[in-house]
Amino acid sequence: MIFRNGDVTLSGTLLLPLTKGPHPTIVFLHGSGAEGRQATRFFAEYFTDRGMATLISDKRGVGKSTGDWHRSDFGDLADDAIAGIRFLQQRKEIDATKIGIYGHSQGGMIAPLVASRTKDVAFVISSAGHALPLYEGEINSITNQVRARGISGNDLAEATDFIKMWHNVARTGEGWEQFDAAMEKARATNWFRAIRVPPKDDWTWAFFKRIYDYNAADYWAKVTVPVFVMYGEKDLFTPVSQSISNIDQALKKAGNKDYTIIVFPRASHTLDIEPDAGQPFEWRRMAPGFPDLLMAWLQERIK
């Protein structure tokens, strides 16, 4: 199946339950990078098996979808999701009053933007999404990854200063001369190999400049429909406590009376329990209670 946002043709798959419709529906948003429809198919099938229709799609410029996400911003991606909602509203199998959205990571950041742009979103599910200026979240993410490699003390402080300079250049496009000098000095350190600075001609510099001032909290302050927000306690990529505080304040500002924020103990960015270094072996597994807890929350809101 295909649907369109202006000149962009988006290709996806609509999964329908075996029960009689019209069905409540979840539209899955994309995470960062070149994400196709298969990335969220596992969760889509989980919900479809429990009576909900689900729409998964190839991100613009991925798989069978046209366009180019490299040259887009979050507004473009949000409008792609809204195009999917518009498509679903025309389908007799779908309950047009019960179409919600589910975004993980970057999708979790874009989810409130989608909900702020249309009144046709019935509920919002956000997983592991920043809720502060994106460049601040990226500084936190990369610093955490350096720390996880055993870098500490003065070395970590030095690395953090470099990471802040890097992302300020990416955000503003200014300060290249100082950054080039800092790069040469950084190459001799024991932490430089723990980060990956793209070459000057890489597409990411222009992309980051378009998105780095985006702050999901600005859009959470406009969301009044039911909201379910999830984080993993040990998420290295997302500033969990600050994001929760900002979302809580924003939803209160919006006058939202129905929102739930959950932190899964020991869970990672993907809401998995992963083996801890130096501890007895255990298999990587989904955080206990997820996604059954989410399904129970949904059932109360789609009756």
Write structural notes for this entry.
The protein is of the alpha/beta class and 303 residues long. The chain contains 10 helices and 10 strands. It has helices spanning 41-48, 74-89, 106-117, 134-148, 153-172, 176-186, 204-211, 216-220, 240-254, 292-301, and strands at 2-5, 8-15, 23-28, 53-57, 94-104, 124-127, 227-232, 259-264, 272-273, 285-286. The strands form 2 sheets. The protein has an 8-stranded mixed sheet, with helices on both faces. Helix 2 (74-89) crosses helix 3 (106-117) and helix 5 runs antiparallel to helix 6. The longest helix is centred in the middle third of the chain and has 20 residues, at 153-172. The radius of gyration is 20 Å and the shape is globular. The chain starts with a strand and ends with a helix.
What distinguishing features does this structure have?
303 residues, alpha/beta, eight-stranded mixed β-sheet, two-stranded antiparallel sheet, 10 strands, 40% helix, globular
Entry summary:
This protein has 303 residues and is α/β, with parallel strands linked by helices. Helices cover 40% and strands 18% of the residues.
What's the tally of helices?
Answer: 10
Runs in which pLDDT lies below 50 for 5 or more consecutive residues are none
Quote the distance from N terminus to C terminus.
Answer: 28 Å
What level of helicity do the residues show?
25-40%
Strand content: 15-25%
Quaternary state, please? single chain
Pattern of helices and strands: EEEHEHEHEHHHHHEHEEEH
User: What value does the average pLDDT take?
Assistant: 95
